């Protein structure tokens, strides 16, 4: 039995008021399909959609069939975003490796462009995932008035209101506050790790030339010295100290 979405209230009144500020370079940049002029701009829209949902899309994560449908006008950007959230890549590399609350925060941030309204909204959407799965939550979000009023059918979702009034520092990007893997799975997978993919540079021949002062240069002279007999230090007694360590076996 599917549970209805529980009611929740915004954490502050600012969440229900449109921001009043002068535009600047810090404002979010909307990437929309209706503004594209050619294949290059269309490819930029596709890349923005991958970055929004997957943070970064490798070659194996891309869906060429969906991309061709979007390029040919068979689906909208909204349908493309929905398919990415329900793809095997999302389930395998994100949903299966995180809790329902983490998935809720990720989908709300990525699809609605805002943070969750406290724990109450997370619990409400977690109940939807528990009863109807990720598909039920994604469908409810992209069909909601908030999503349609903010992004419509042809705009890639983005983080809204990065600039906060009366604050020098705005909101942190979602890919930093909500990484792809939780700390538990980052530890299991060995993240973060640095992988160098460049070509190592070899030392020039002049760097391998001996210019004196190396300890290895004195080894032939040390080997030519006569062997020195070392006497035992005064007061040293050959005694087996390990035999005097008390032994305790299990069960005694």
Short description:
This protein has helices at 39-54, 64-71, 77-85, 88-93, 100-112, 118-142, 145-150, 174-177, 183-189, 219-223; strands at residues 31-32, 155-156.
Detailed description of the structure:
- With 252 residues, the chain is mainly alpha-helical.
- The chain is elongated and about 90 Å long.
- The chain has helices at 39-54, 64-71, 77-85, 88-93, 100-112, 118-142, 145-150, 174-177, 183-189, 219-223, and strands spanning 31-32, 155-156.
- The protein has 10 helices and 2 strands; from the N terminus they run βαααααααβααα.
- Helix content is 39%, strand content 2%.
Which structural class should the secondary elements be placed in? mainly alpha
By DSSP (H or I, 4+ residues per run), the number of helices equals 10
User: For the residues shown, what is the average pLDDT?
Assistant: 76
Read across the widest sheet, the strand sequence of neighbours is 1-2
Looking at the structure, what is the overall shape?
elongated
Are there runs of 5+ residues with pLDDT below 50, and where? none
Helix content: 25-40%
Main beta sheet: 2 strands, antiparallel
Report strand %.
under 5%
What is the rounded Rg? Answer: 31 Å
Terminal CA distance reads 60 Å
The counted number of beta strands is 2
Summarize the helix and strand pattern as letters.
EHHHHHHHEHHH
